[in-house]
Amino acid sequence: MPRVPALEELQRRRSEKWFGHADGVIAATVAEMDFELAEPIAAVLHDAVRRSDLGYTSGLPSSLASAFAGFAQRRLHWSVDPDRLTLVPDVMIGLIELCRVIAPAGSVGFATAAYPPFLEQLPPAGFSLVPLPLRPDGSFDLELLSARLRDGLNVLILANPHNPTGRVLPRTELAQIAELCAQYDTWVLADEIHAPLVLPGAEHQPWLEVSEAARHCGISLTSASKAFNLAGLKAALVVTASDRAQDLVRRLTITPDQAGLLGVLAAEAAFSAGDAWLDDVLHQLDKNRALIDEQLPAGVAWTPPQATYVAWLDCSAANLGTDPAAFFLERSRVALSPGRSYDPAATTFVRLNFGTGDVILTEMLTRMANAVDAVPGRFPG
Predict the structure, then answer these.
(1) Opening angle at CA 50, ends 46 and 53, nearest 5
(2) Could you read off the pLDDT of 314-354 as tens digits, one per residue?
C-alpha cells in the first residue's frame, strides 16, 4: 500500500492542500492525495533533476502517446489513436482554449454543483455560464439540457466522473446527452480526468466510445494528474475520434512548450508503469469510502461516490449554521471545501477529500463527529 506520511510531515508540503494551515489542522480540501508518489514516477523525476533536464517541452513524444493509448485500453477499455492526441498544459486550460475556438464569448453549460474553476475561470475568459442543476438523485437533467440547447447553448462541459458528487454517468445517459447535443450541433467537451479513479461497483464509459454521435460532437480531455497526484507538473491530453474534432483541435493556439517537461515525463511513467500503485490506491480509497459510511457524523448525509476521492456531504440536518466548512475548521480543526464554492446554492454542503490513509481519515471523522455532538441543542427532546 502506498505510504502516507505522518500529519507533521504532510504539513511541511508546499502544495495548496496543506500549505498555510495552522498546526494540527487536517487538510481535506483541494483534490490532492497524501500518498507518496509511485516509485516509477519518482525515479523518472529524480533522474531528470540529476541530469538538470528542466527545459522546455518539445512536443508530445510518441512514447507518451503510446503509453496513454496502452493505459486507456488496459484500464478503461478505450481504443485511442495515438495520432489523435494533443498535449496541453492542463485540462482546464484545454477546456477554455477549446471554448474560445468553438464560440468566442459564447455560452458554456455544465452540471452543478461543479468544479469551482468552471465557475471562476470561464466568465473572465468571456463566456456566459449556463448552470444545469443535477436532479436530486445526481443524474443529468436531460429535459433542462434540451431546453438550454434550444436556447442556443454553444458548449457543454461534461465532467465524468462528476466532481464533486463522484457519480459515474451510465452509458444510456451519456448516449442521450450525445444524441441531444449532436441534434443541435453543440460541442461536448468531456472532462474525464477522474476516469482512472472509478471504485469497485462502477465502470467508466469513455465519451468517445459511447456512440457515433458522441464522436461527432465530442472531444475528451484527461491527464495523469488526479489519479497519480501530479497536478503541479502541468501536462494533459486532448483526445479526438473524428476528423471534424481533430480539425477543431488544430486551431488551438496553445504551444507544446506551455506544458511542463516534468509533467510529460511523469505522465509517461504513470501510464506505462503505474498500474500496481494505482491498484493499491483504489483499494485504499474503497476502504476509505466504507469507513466514511460507517463513521459519518450524526446529521451529515451523503451518497457514497462511485469514483474519485471526494465526498459530497450534506450537513443540513446537523444544525451547523450557515457555513459548515467554517464550523468544522473552528470546532474540529479539519479543513473542508465549502459547498458554495461548487454551487452558490449549496450552502449546507462541504466536500471532503479522502485521498489519505485510514489513520488520518479516522482522526478526521472522529474530530468532526465530536464537534457535531457538542453542538448545543443538537438533539432536542
Answers:
(1) 95
(2) 999 998 988 999 999 999 999 999 999 999 999 999 999 99
Q: CA-based angle 18:332:364, to the nearest 5?
A: 65
Domain limits, the chain: 7-37+275-372, 42-273
Q: Parallel, antiparallel, or unpaired: how do β-strands 310-314 and 349-353 relate?
A: antiparallel
Question: What three-state secondary structure class fits 335?
Answer: strand
Cell numbers linked to 163: 466532481
* Spatial CB neighbours of 380, under 8 Å, sequence gap ≥ 6: none
Strand partners, 247: none
Instruction: Render 112-175 in DSSP notation, one character per residue.
Output: ES--HHHHHHTTTTTPEEEEEEPPTTS---HHHHHHHHHTT--EEEEESS-TTT-PPPPHHHHH
What CATH number does the domain located at 42-273 have? 3.40.640.10
Q: Which of 23, 3, 1 has its CA nearest to residue 12?
A: 23
Q: What is residue 365's predicted lDDT score, i.e. its pLDDT?
A: 98
Q: Domain 7-37+275-372 - what CATH class?
A: alpha beta
Contact between 313 and 354 (Cβ < 8 Å) = no
The residues, any chain, with a CB within 8 Å of residue 14's CB and separated by 6 or more, are none
Residue 188's identity, in one-letter code, is V
Sign of the CA dihedral with 99 first, then 104, 110, and 116 last = positive
Length, in residues, of the chain: 381
249: its cell numbers: 483541435
pTM for this predicted structure: 0.96
In degrees and rounded to multiples of 5, residue 4 shows phi and psi of -110, 120
The angle, 0 to 180 degrees and rounded to 10, between the axes of the packed helices 324-332 and 358-373 is: 100
